[in-house]
Amino acid sequence: MDQEKIKRAIYDILVAIGEDPNREGLKDTPERIARMYEEIFSGINEDPLSVLNVEYHENTDEMVLIKDIPFYSICEHHLIPFIGRAHVAYLPKDGRVVGLSKIARVVDILSKKPQLQERLTSEIARTIMKGLNPLGVAVVVEAEHLCMSMRGIKKPGHTTVTSALRGAFKASSSTRSEVLSLIFGRLI
Question: pLDDT for 86-116, tens place per residue?
Fold first, then answer.
């Protein structure tokens, strides 16, 4: 990541909006934002499949569901955050399971780049399918988009929900219903 280019760009933005980038509260802002961008966009050059290479074999083919994985991402249309939680379930094939933190790490990596919620949801499902080769994957993502809360329509508190179903979760209505009832806490 080119820290110097980011600093110059932020300096120029401050000037363009009519601020004095040299005043007390803003003089270190370009450097702070450059460091922040390195952190919040750290998923750009990271391979989420690499975290799924540590697997275990258990005698199970029962659903594994990790609920309420917190994440934040940056909307690629406005470069404003969207913040939410992801629910990821998979059905192990041949007893192949992975540490629970690895699923959360996949969500983390994929969310740390300019993103769309719809794409993020699909990328999580695709990564789990490719990395674990399970019988199925279900991903539900719920988020508030600050581009809708702070600007434009100005509707704070809204939730956008997206889902991606693969394999058995897509093919079987009973499996799909089970995972959705576990995620949302009611029969679907």
Answer: 999 999 999 999 999 999 999 999 999 999 9
Global pTM value: 0.94
The pLDDT tens digits for 114-168 are 999 999 999 999 999 999 999 999 999 999 999 999 998 999 999 999 999 999 9
- In angstroms, the CA 35 to CA 94 distance is 44
> Domains, the chain, ranges and CATH?
3-41 (1.10.286.10), 55-184 (3.30.1130.10)
75 is in an annotated binding site: yes
Q: Which residues are catalytic?
A: 75-78, 117, 145, 147
For residues 175 and 182, give the distance between their C-alpha atoms in angstroms, rounded to a whole number: 11
Is 57 annotated as contributing to ligand binding? Answer: no
Paired residues of 163 in beta bridges: 140
Q: Which residue has the tokens 């933190």?
A: 101
Q: Residue 16 has which token pair?
A: 């363009």
Contacts of residue 107, Cβ cutoff 8 Å, sequence gap at least 6: 69, 71, 86, 88, 124
Q: Beta strand pairing status for 136-145 and 114-115?
A: unpaired
pLDDT digits (tens, 9 = 90+) for 35-85: 999 999 999 999 999 999 877 899 988 999 999 999 999 999 999 999 999
